[in-house]
DNA sequence: AACCGGGGTGTACGTATGTACAGGTGCGGT
DNA sequence: ACCGCACCTGTACATACGTACACCCCGGTT
């Protein structure tokens, strides 16, 4: 059952499992996604990563260390995903539509990513050591959105994206794509002054 | 030491303390503000409210009930504060400046209100029963901001406010008022197309 | 071939938590 | 005057948690 690394001779390679630490951190992410930050325990993580309990306390001296590394991984993944999304965009496409698709994706199929990102984000409010990681996520949003528009609009869109995504993940039922599109269009193009 | 209610004869009025339940809920808010949702325990709340431990379990059968009522109170308070802020505004004043002041206040002196609001907001992501309360907060923002502009701009500003406030509470050091003002101005007035 | 060193693990312990519940206390009915 | 009852509280218990640490095991060294 235990998915341990095996060397070519079939003997358990107890030593040198450099992926172990990252496996545990990623398991922590899924635990947070399912149970929230309160549910993050050494035992839950050990079960999710399929490693013994002692392994989690060996690789991470304290739970906060584990939380910090999990946040770092989650933020890195999300920053990478946003950059990949941006580089895959048509160079002249309608940006409001693209951002709407992005939000809808994070509310729908990728909802768990959204939940864990905000969980860890808010956890940083009580743990100053985690704030730089959260700030990096913000800065990446500003940079990516600003590259497609201009620096100031990038800051507007980063804040709007952050708030709108959280509100959309909360709303039941979630807002329609059309409603979100209207908001982004208004934010990018400005008020429609047509009389 | 215990601040119990006393009747006019000086005997402890054990019966009928209708404020008790609310006192406990408000104590829960301050506990969440200081220690986060993970730190919300019957004992911590009892100590903060200066009531015996049994009192918290008597008035709230489960911790989630307590969390729900605390979120409701916090949201009500914040909604009331926003409405009061709006009704105290000059009718023709610059709205971007007013919103900037609002954000700066919630990042500075009222930072604890902000922290607890987001803590409880995010807690609702894992507790569907709490989502209507969070949604009410969102709707109030849309309504208040929309009344000073227009419905669509109200939705933009509500999302932007939510995201920007969270980012500002996270940032260290917090962004300058000027930076926030620029963002709100850009969001309200649209892009400056002057060549 | 013997040994040694360090990474990895299972267990045990002290502590904090949620919750149940028996008992106490004063008010309202008779 | 008496009593039942509903409200309230302090305590006790089972459980789950973080953490420490004694042991194990294998690869490299001599």
Automatic annotation (TrEMBL), chains A, B:
Keywords: DNA-binding
Organism: Actinomycetospora endophytica
Keyword DNA-binding among UniProt keywords: yes
Protein name: TetR family transcriptional regulator
UniProt KW DNA-binding keyword: yes
HTH tetR-type domain residues: 18-78
DNA bind region: 41-60
PANTHER family in the record: HTH-TYPE TRANSCRIPTIONAL REGULATOR RUTR, TRANSCRIPTIONAL REGULATORY PROTEIN (PROBABLY DEOR-FAMILY)-RELATED
PROSITE patterns the UniProt entry points to: HTH_TETR_2
């Amino acid at each position: 059952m235990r998915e341990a690394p095996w060397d070519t001779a079939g003997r358990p390679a107890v030593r040198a499992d450099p992926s172990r630490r990252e496996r545990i951190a990623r398991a922590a992410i899924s635990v947070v996604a399912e149970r929230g930050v309160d549910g993050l325990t050494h035992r839950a993580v050990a079960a999710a990563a399929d490693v013994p309990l002692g392994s989690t306390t060996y690789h991470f001296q304290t739970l906060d260390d584990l939380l910090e590394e999990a946040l770092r991984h989650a933020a890195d993944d999300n920053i990478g995903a946003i950059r990949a999304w941006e580089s895959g965009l048509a160079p002249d496409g309608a940006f409001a539509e693209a951002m709407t698709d992005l939000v809808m994706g994070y509310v729908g199929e990728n909802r768990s990513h959204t939940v864990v990102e905000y969980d860890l984000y808010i956890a940083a409010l009580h743990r100053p050591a985690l704030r730089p990681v959260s700030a990096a996520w913000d800065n990446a949003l500003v940079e990516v959105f600003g590259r497609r528009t201009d620096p100031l609009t990038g800051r507007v869109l980063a804040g709007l994206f952050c708030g709108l995504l959280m509100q959309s993940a909360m709303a039941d039922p979630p807002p329609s794509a059309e409603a979100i599109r209207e908001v982004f269009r208004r934010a990018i193009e400005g008020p429609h002054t047509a009389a």
